[in-house]
Amino acid sequence: MTETAIQGIITGVLMGMIYALIALGISIIFGVMNVVNFAHGDFVMFSMYLSYVLGTALVWDAVQTPLLTFPILLIFGLIVYYLIIDRTLRQLYVVQLAATVGLQIMMRAAALVIWRGQPRALQYSFIQGNFEIFGFQVLTSRFVAAVISLIFIAAVAYFMNKTWAGAAMRAASDDLDAATLMGVNYHRTYALTFALGSALTAIAGGLLMSFQQTDPVGGIRFGFLSWCVLALAGLGSIPGLIAAGAIVGVAESLQVTFFNPQGRLLAVYAIFILVLWLKPRGLFGRK
Amino acid sequence: MKRPKLLNSKNIAILVVLAIAIVLPLFLRTNQYVLFLATTVLLYAVLASAWNIIGGMAGQLDLGAAAYVGLGAFTTGTLLIRFNLTPWVGMFIGALLAMGIATLIGIPLFGFKVKEVWYALSSSALVEVFRAIFMMWNKVGGPTERYLPFSAEGPRSWYLMRFNTYVPYFYIMLALLVVVFIINHRIRYSKLGYSLLALGEDEDAVEVLGVDSRLCKLKALMIYSFVAGLVGGVYGCIYGYLHPSFFSTDMSLEVVILGIVGGMGVTYGPLLAAIFLVSFREYLRASLSGMFPGKGLEGLYLMVYALILIVVALFQPRGIAPLIKRGFLKLKSFVGVK
Fold first, then answer.
1. pLDDT averaged over consecutive 10-residue blocks of chain B (338 residues)?
2. Is-contact B265 B57, C-beta < 8 A?
3. Cα(B249)–Cα(B24) distance, rounded to whole angstroms?
4. Is the Cβ of A111 closer than 8 Å to some Cβ of chain B?
5. CATH of A2-278, one of 3.40.1350, 1.10.10, 1.10.3470, 2.60.40
6. Do A113 and B300 lie within an 8 Å CB cutoff?
7. Are B262 and B321 in contact, with CB atoms under 8 Å apart?
8. Region of residue A271 (phi > 0: left; psi between -120 and 50: alpha; otherwise: beta)
9. Taking CB atoms and an 8 Å limit, are B117 and A97 in contact across chains?
10. DSSP of B130-188, one letter per residue?
11. Which residue, of A20, A37, A167, B25, has the fewest CB within 10 Å?
12. Can you tell me the distance from the alpha carbon of A142 to that of A194, in angstroms, rounded to the nearest whole number?
């Protein structure tokens, strides 16, 4: 019993790191631009399909595919920003949300048309298998994915704190007018933020493809999971994001282990609602 | 501003459309497909008009329509299967249940000032959560369809609300639409309506003026969920079975699209949008089903929907209703009527 629980916790924490990486994308977009990208989960789904296409065409391993999907998603993010997001910045927020909801439907629909709505998976990745720590089984693929996620989260933190572009993003987040006066071109900063946030899903997509399949509806689930992580973490705290990712991952994994795997979203939803009611700014939020 | 009379020139135009709608089934009697299409259009128009109260007026992007529809359908259907209670009563119990659950969720949600994206997320997750619950709850739902009892002829068929033809469903939906229109019209020009409209623009300013925004939003949510629950009861009877797939995110999204494309806060907007978009969807389904096997076709019309939604959001955020109004006025001046 305890052993099963610990086993579930280990799997959950490792999965949680990927959720944290996905949530980091919406966190910087929401935090810097105050724009809600409802389609973020579908960006993940889209990257997974892209990984599948590239992985089968080039006979690459899933873990390698982000080398190509990252730049593709970066460009895709730029296009989406200039075509859609940039025009909704001054609109009522319902309209803004509606535009990204449209984007979400569009991406899911494209996946339905192109891949007929069938789930797709790649060949077994070379990081499959498992190893043992203190008598507990750890899946190598999850472990590698978690480590890579953490590396990228750290890289983004470095970028935000130590580079000029990162400083511009944080300045635009704190006070847009003051930042503009200091010579920050906010259109360009926003475009970069949105592209970076979208491109992070490419990493997550490649890692997820190494051990699971993708289907068009998966985007809704990833979107909800990552918003839940963000609600738990609050804005502006990267350690908080990692902790929140772990909490959500563990909740999901324990629900699957001890109750019904079909209701895997129930535990996450319960956390989401409780956090919204009791701690609307998240457990670790800065603002 | 006083509430305009219910019988002004615009509403008379609507009444004329209504009269056409009432005689329509008499001519379409032989063509069940067209009748089914018309019923579906009305069903979505009812849902989108109800959404208009919380989404269009109060500016809360509610993505939970299918949750209330599903609850209504399951309550009505289960009462019929288990206790042989007629759907004519059951649908009201289902609507009350949907409203009760919406209220239970709404009180803390609005009380703790959950708004904007968080409200949209929690309502859209509600649909998925209910689907998961009903998938696991084998006594009521479960992964296999539960068929409702059927009787082809006579009073028994009326008691079960199951018919051979779509004509009765068409009239039920039409009646619901009229009721929702009147509710919309009355709210639009009441204190509640003005509060909701102002809420949609700037919530803090409304609070400063002494409006209890929580109570207003809660009222809007209650009306909306009640109507969606009612529609759900009939929805189950139209399809003749119960399945957790009734809790469908696509349905919620479609309702929102109709509401926004039609024009937020405009009473007749959703009906216009439903007439255009839903019949367009069914046309695609009928004409292209051979070319796109599997779920490809579903994707195709979703794509068109999404494109329309994005274009409307970017270039015509007030919806298509103002365009039609302008066209109507031009036509009027062209004909020479004042």
1. 61 71 69 82 90 85 90 91 84 92 87 77 85 83 79 75 80 88 85 82 79 86 92 90 86 87 79 84 73 68 84 82 78 71
2. yes
3. 31
4. yes
5. 1.10.3470
6. yes
7. yes
8. alpha
9. yes
10. HHHHHHH-TTT--SS-EEPP---SHHHHHHHT--SSSHHHHHHHHHHHHHHHHHHHHHH
11. A167
12. 27
Is residue B256 in some structural domain?
Answer: no
B184 alpha-carbon distance from chain centroid: 13
Q: How far apart are the C-alpha atoms of B331 and B338, rounded to whole Å? A: 11
Predicted local distance difference test score (pLDDT) of residue A238: 84
- Would an 8 Å CB–CB cutoff place A113 in contact with chain B? yes
Domain that holds residue B209: 9-248
> What is the C-alpha to C-alpha distance for residues B51 and B278, in angstroms, rounded to an integer?
16
What pLDDT is attached to residue A31? 85
pLDDT digits (tens, 9 = 90+) for B182-230: 888 888 888 888 888 888 777 778 888 878 888 888 999 999 999 999 9
* DSSP 8-state secondary structure symbol assigned to residue A63: G
ipTM, two decimals, is: 0.83
Pick the residue of B109, B133, B277, B314 with the most A CBs within 10 A to test the interface with A by mutation.
Answer: B314
Say if B255 falls within a structural domain. Answer: no
Residue B37 to residue B275: CA distance in whole angstroms: 10
Q: B259 to chain A: nearest residue by CA?
A: A98
Q: Kindly give the interhelix angle for A2-33 and A186-209, rounded to the nearest 10 degrees.
A: 160
List, in order, residues 6 or more apart from A127 with CB less than 8 Å away: A61, A63, A140, A141, A144, A145, A210
pLDDT band at A22 (very low <50, low <70, confident <90, very high): very high
Mean local confidence (pLDDT), A208-213: 84
> A117 and B294: CB-CB below 8 Å?
yes
Q: What pLDDT sits at residue B5? A: 62
Cβ atoms within 10 A of the Cβ of B185, count? Answer: 17
Residue A61 has pLDDT above 90, yes or no: no
Residue B328 lies in a domain: no
Q: How far is CA A92 from CA A35, B62, B202, in A?
A: 11, 15, 10
Q: Return the residue matching tokens 């449209």.
A: A102
Q: pLDDT tens digits for B167-185? A: 888 888 888 988 888 888 8
User: How confident is the prediction for chain A on average, in pLDDT?
Assistant: 84
DSSP A105-133: HHHHHHHHHHHTT--B-PSPPTT-SEEEE
**Domain locations in chain A as residue ranges:** 2-278
Predicted local distance difference test score (pLDDT) of residue B294: 61
Q: What is the DSSP string of A143-180?
A: HHHHHHHHHHHHHHHHHHHHSHHHHHHHHHHH-HHHHH
